[in-house]
Design a protein that fits this description.
single chain; LrpA1; four-stranded antiparallel sheet; elongated; sequence-specific DNA binding; transcription
Length: about 140
């Protein structure tokens, strides 16, 4: 069995259930617990695993709105703008994108009005951010 195949199986289990114990991962990936520990430590050290999180169904949140916001950024201000966006508490995740927008930000706010304020008063005030296009998440389907 190849190293890559072992790594892929361990990652697949973690992506399915980030709370799985080493014993559960070992059982589902068909490897030993020490192997799981070794691979997970190595993947964390290499930056492949960057964190563990809970998947949230936005429809079931009573006190929060989640939106994916496509951000257009001037090329010459990309590095500074990205750092400023990452520093915002309301930005849960930030991704570079090859799609319609240079960046995609997962933004959380109390409601649609609060999200609008974050966009107009924080995101669009960052030097280099030229446009923001929000899409409200309605329901987690998978």
């Amino acid at each position: 069995m190849s190293t890559q195949a072992t790594e892929d199986r361990i990652l697949a289990v973690l992506e399915e259930d980030a709370q799985a114990s080493y014993a559960e991962i070992a059982d589902r990936a068909d490897v030993s617990k020490p192997t799981v520990r070794k691979y997970i430590n190595q993947l964390e050290d290499e930056g492949v695993i960057v964190g563990y999180s809970a998947d949230v169904d936005p429809k079931k949140l009573s006190s929060q709105t989640i939106a994916l916001v496509g951000l257009d950024v001037a090329s010459e201000r990309y590095v500074e703008a990205t750092k400023a966006i990452k520093a915002l508490e309301e930005v849960e995740a930030l991704y570079s994108s090859s799609g319609d927008h240079m960046l995609m930000a997962e933004v959380r706010a109390a409601d649609g009005d609060a999200l609008g304020e974050i966009i107009s008063e924080e995101l669009l005030e960052i030097e280099g951010v030229t446009a923001a296009h929000p899409s409200f998440l309605q329901e987690r389907l998978k």
